[in-house]
Structures are given as C-alpha cells and as structure tokens.
Amino acid sequence: MLTKERRDLIVSYINENNAVTVAQLMEQFDASAATIRRDLSVLHDEKRILKVFGGATSLSSTDVNTIEPTVSAKASLNIEEKEAISRYAASLINDDDFVYIDSGTTTLEMIKYIDNTKAKYITNGIVHAKKLLEKNLSTMIIGGRCKFATEAIIGPDCIEGISKYHFTKAFMGTNGISLTAGFTTPDVDEALVKAEAVKHAYISYILADHSKFGLVSSVTFADITKCCIITDKEPKASYGSKTIIKVV
Fold first, then answer.
1. In CATH, what number is assigned to the domain containing residue 97?
2. In terms of pLDDT, which residue wins out, 111 or 50?
3. Is residue 157 domain-resident?
4. Nearest to residue 87, comparing CAs of 241, 236, 232?
5. Do both 83 and 155 map to the same domain?
6. Which value, to the nearest 10 degrees, does the dihedral of the CA atoms of residues 174, 24, 58, 47 take?
7. Residue 86, CA distances (Å) to 40, 67, 174, 178 in order
8. DSSP string spanning the chain?
9. What pLDDT, on a 0 to 100 scale, did the predictor assign at position 73?
C-alpha cells in the first residue's frame, strides 16, 4: 500500500470511529507503531486529524480548547447540571475521609452541599478554602503560586505539598473527556497539580456535565481509566467500557 493511500484510509477510519488508538491503527493497517505515529504526525500537521497521546481523534467530532475560561465565565454555564452533580458528589464523603477538592466551578458548587464535619478537607482553590472555612470544616490549603484566571494554587511547591499526602477521595474538575486523550485541561501547570492529586488519591471522581465529553484540551492529567465520572447524562457506551460512570 502506498503511503498516501494508507494515510487517506487512516483519516477515513478515524472520522468513522471519532477516536482511535495507535494499537487499533496498527492492527487495521498492518503497520508498525513507528509508521502509524509518523503518519499521525504528518496528518496532524496537515490539519486532517488531531493527534493525541496514544492515538488520534476526528477534527469533526472533537473541540480542541487551548484557552482557560475565567471562573466567572465558567460559573454561568450549565448551572442546574452542576448542582445535581455536586450534590451527589458531596453525599459520597464519609466520616474520617481525607478529601482533596480540586479548584473549579463544579467542585466549588459541591462545597455548598458538604455537611460532613468529621472529614478533613484540603484544596488548591483559594475560594474553595474560604467556603470550607465558612462552613466550619477542617480545612487545609496547599501553598504555591496563585493563578489569576482560575484562582488556583499551582507550581512546584504545590505539587511537592500534594505529594506528601494520601487522600481517601479526590474530587476533580476537567475541561475535556476523551477516550484517547483522557481527562484534559488547557494549562500545563494545572495539569501537573491535578495529576499529582489523582496519583495520591485512593479513588478520584471527575465532576463533569455532559458538555465535556468528546472535548480535548491541551494537556492530559489522567487516563480515562484512572477516575470515576459523575455526570448528568449518559455518554456513549464506549465511555462506560473504560471507567465507572454515575449519572445523576
């Protein structure tokens, strides 16, 4: 098979399946991993597909977001869905849990519904820490550099701080959920913090409304198999085959 012919067929295959892995393409086209990765790089540069970690997605089905909206902008989106998701998430907190709460508008909404005073809470969200304290909950905030757009603590000091802890539960926000790219966010510094929190949690929950499925941002912070998802609508069955999904 000629190189151009194979690449045209790869584009068609990706468009038909929305998202594929390198392994799937290797089997489909009887090609080596190096050949497939080279093809994906060329097709990505030609803006025919989107190359992501471990595979590729169709441009027609995936919105690639490289810009981080402000807290105020995100807070006005999908309000009812966020309320339902955050209410259920808060109900999962048990006595003596050591809970990590990620910065983000849905996790901030979740704090309104937290009523467990026997658990301990730690966060990298500035506003989140204030809201936890207002409820007279045992609260810690991670130290580090403050990010203006999301009002989050980030940076190497933050990551080092998180690395010392072992959380029973982590509640995380995300900008996108993809079968191949996993959970993503536009900012590399926030991605590193999120990744560290997931790494040090016994179980991690992603709080995300239905609009986040199929979206990809610049940086992956966790594979889709590493976190449970709490959402408001049933996604495609292919997502449920990868991880636990709770629809509220």
1. 3.40.50.1360
2. 111
3. yes
4. 232
5. yes
6. 110
7. 38, 24, 14, 21
8. --HHHHHHHHHHHHHHHSEEEHHHHHHHHT--HHHHHHHHHHHHHTTSSEEETTEEE-TTT-EEE-----HHHHHTSSHHHHHHHHHHHHHT--TT-EEEE-SSHHHHHHHTT---SSSEEEESBHHHHHHHHHTT-EEEE--SEEETTTTEEESHHHHHHHHT--EEEEEE--SEEETTTEEEES-HHHHHHHHHHHHTEEEEEEE--GGGBTEEESEEEE-GGGSEEEESS---HHHHTTS-EEE-
9. 46
Give the residue carrying structure tokens 């790219």: 181
Distance of CA 154 to the CA centre of its chain: 16
Please check whether residue 66 lies inside any domain of the structure: no
Q: Domain containing 23: what range?
A: 3-61
CATH code of residue 22: 1.10.10.10
- Specify the length of the chain in residues: 248
Residue carrying structure tokens 């408001």:
232
- What's the angle, vertex CA 129, arms to CA 79 and CA 88, rounded to 5? 40
pLDDT-derived band at 68 (thresholds 50, 70, 90) equals low
* Per-residue pLDDT at 78 exceeds 90: no
User: What's the structural domain count of the chain?
Assistant: 2
| Res. 218: pLDDT tops 90 | no
